[in-house]
Amino acid sequence: MKSCSYGxxxxxxxxxxxxxxxxxxxxxxxxxxxxxxFIVKTSSQHxxxxxxxxxxxxxxxxxxxxxxxxxxxxxGIENASFTLNGKKYELFANEPGNVxxxxxxxxxxxxxxxxxxxxxxxxTFLRTSVDGEENFPHNLxxxxxxxxxxxxxxxxxxxxxxxxxxxxxxxHPYFNLSGSENSVESVLLKVNxxxxxxxxxxxxxxxxxxxxxxxxxxxxxxxxxxxxDYDVNFCASSEHxxxxxxxxxxxxxxxxxxxxxLQLYTPNFMESLYGKNGSEYKGRCAFCLEPQFYPNAVNxxxxxxxxxxxxxxxxxxxxxxxTEV
Length: 325
Fold this sequence. Notes:
The protein is built from 1 helix and 29 strands. The chain has 325 residues and is mainly beta. It has a 9-stranded antiparallel beta sheet, with no helix packed on it. The two termini are 30 Å apart. The relative contact order is 0.17.
């Protein structure tokens, strides 16, 4: 079992923990439960397939959320507020249009976690998101378990609340299956969904759901990501959310989850961003596949709300499986 420093932030030392087997090596930090490194070992190469940063402060300053666990509520909340049990909760608007994104000013990605256990292929983190944190109500105990298997990485995110609140986490790795120096435009993607959530004026879903057919979002069969800037939520039709194939590296990524939605995000870095080992991130150098509840579901009656009740435990899983093709 191996660990090392991940720098210092909030006047506290961050640590990286390594999980490894014959096929993969993963580096995960106790700060933000960040996946910093996802190395795939093939017969011809060892390829790191995610973007990341050399230390916790560099990650924080990037404002990318790369590889982190997101919460309490992933994605955007319109008008930076919601009403629960007759009470209105005002949140921090950290995006234009009065939108609270990815948990607010200091979401799950910006906290330290206690390590409950650590072995060669598994690590479990624990933290309590306290009542009033980012103005969300009630205490929420969060357990995050990362397990390395022969197929890839499995993540289990559990929440236990002492009162009714919202709990809608995700994991936010930026993937490039052939290395960050290459564009992802030629990546082939298939998404198991027939519908998507339509956006309103704030860029968040307005409650309408429409078919993907005859739209840029039709990934019902494999097609290249191309040059379109995607930032869309799919209404997933199965727990097998999506498959991506990189023809350059001959690697295939499959995403599974019991969360009902899937966000496809293809950042287009207009200015270069420098990541781990001096890597330059620019243009379309990554794609994100984020299982989630539908964005802004806390404010839309037609969408399933991510409620968790007093004394209730909710568990969500996300699997990132990688194989050669």
